[in-house]
Design goal:
The chain has 352 residues and is mainly alpha-helical. The chain has a two-stranded antiparallel sheet with strand order 1-2.
């Protein structure tokens, strides 16, 4: 379904909208765009998965700008992590080795960096890890003008904690400290996602946002088995999206608002007449609803420019450029989705 795009006007306070089932919270027009965005972005995912030709949407904002998928695990980097980093028959499957691979990938969060390391060093294992070897590959790549970090989020440099001038050196030392602390084994023994978050949060350079993202990635593996409905931490973009959607939170804090969205999803899609296609039966989880707030914050900069956020950002930086390389979708086996995946087309390049 198309999403209405409003003409640019001067910034103003959003007009409160009272919906009986949300009382005492009050929302803005961006609240309904949240649900319409989620439904249309997921529809684009399936259209591309079926191999349909462009345009995949008649919504001008979604057609022009880059947005992540409605489901975090469907994005290209997450798909690569799950299929080519975590669940590898040719690499060791011990908790220690799997954890090492996950954190090494996520510290850079860039497929090309992982593949560069594999080409240069062979199979990625902690048993064969040497700081000098990894540092040498990454340093040479940077000297050649290559970007080794993803632009998805900013990694703190870590020089204060680890004393190296190069950012990647500090991150390698951070990972070494985690391994020395036997963090993988400690995570395998805990019962809740929040406990895992707190253990990661205790390390230098790891703030709330990164700790939540990292524990979510670890939880794609068999190392832990938390429900994605256990715990949520809103990142900076999500907080701005929340402020744009909720004029008055009605006494609820940010995590409670995200949980409210997860709880109401079927009701809201039905109320708005939206045909939301779930992920082969998997509902939107807290991490997905959190991410959608971040994406609707960006979306509203163009669709609802009169509603200003705290950051003052008024543009969406990244334009949408489809990557032609196909993806065979694969999700954590414990989700029991992989035998349900059917897109009836040979081209599965929907993830970004």
């Amino acid at each position: 379904m198309p999403i209405a795009v409003r003409p640019t006007t001067a910034s103003a306070e959003p007009t409160p909208i009272v919906l009986r089932h949300l009382t005492p919270a009050k929302v803005s027009e961006v609240y309904e765009s949240y649900w319409r965005f989620a439904a249309e972005r997921q529809a684009v995912f399936f259209r591309r998965a079926r191999g349909e030709m462009r345009p995949w949407t008649d919504n001008p904002v979604l057609a022009i700008y880059k947005f992540t998928n409605a489901y975090r695990a469907s994005d290209r980097a997450s798909q690569y992590l799950i299929r080519h980093v975590i669940y590898r028959d040719d690499l060791p499957s011990s908790p220690r080795e799997v954890f090492f691979r996950i954190l090494l990938f996520k510290l850079f969060n860039k497929i090309e960096t992982w593949e560069l390391l594999e080409r240069a060093l062979g199979p990625i294992t902690f048993e064969d890890y040497r700081f000098a070897a990894y540092d040498g590959v990454l340093t040479r790549a940077m000297q050649a003008g290559r970007r080794i970090y993803s632009a998805a989020y900013i990694m703190p440099p870590g020089s204060r904690a680890f004393g190296r001038s190069a950012k990647h050196q500090n991150h390698l030392l951070l990972l070494e400290r985690m391994m020395a602390d036997r963090l993988a084994e400690r995570l395998a023994q805990i019962r809740t996602m929040q406990e895992g978050f707190e253990k990661l949060r205790a390390y230098p350079t790891i703030g709330d946002f990164l700790a939540y993202q990292f524990i979510t990635d670890v939880n794609y593996s068999e190392l832990t088995d938390f429900s994605e409905m256990d715990f949520v931490v809103p990142g900076p973009g999500a907080r701005d999206g929340l402020r744009k959607c909720f004029v008055d939170p009605g006494g609820l804090n940010e995590p409670e608002l995200i949980r409210l969205m997860a709880d109401l999803q079927e009701q809201e899609f039905e109320r708005l007449g939206l045909d939301f296609q779930s992920l082969w039966g998997r509902r939107l989880q807290l991490i997905d609803c959190q991410n959608l707030f971040c994406e609707v914050d960006k979306y509203a900069r163009v669709a609802h420019p009169q509603i200003a956020g705290k950051t003052g950002r008024v543009r969406i930086k990244q334009k949408f450029e489809p990557i032609p390389k196909p993806i065979e979708f694969f999700y954590p086996p414990k989700w029991k989705l992989n035998n349900k995946i059917c897109v009836d087309a040979p081209d599965r390049s929907a993830a970004e």
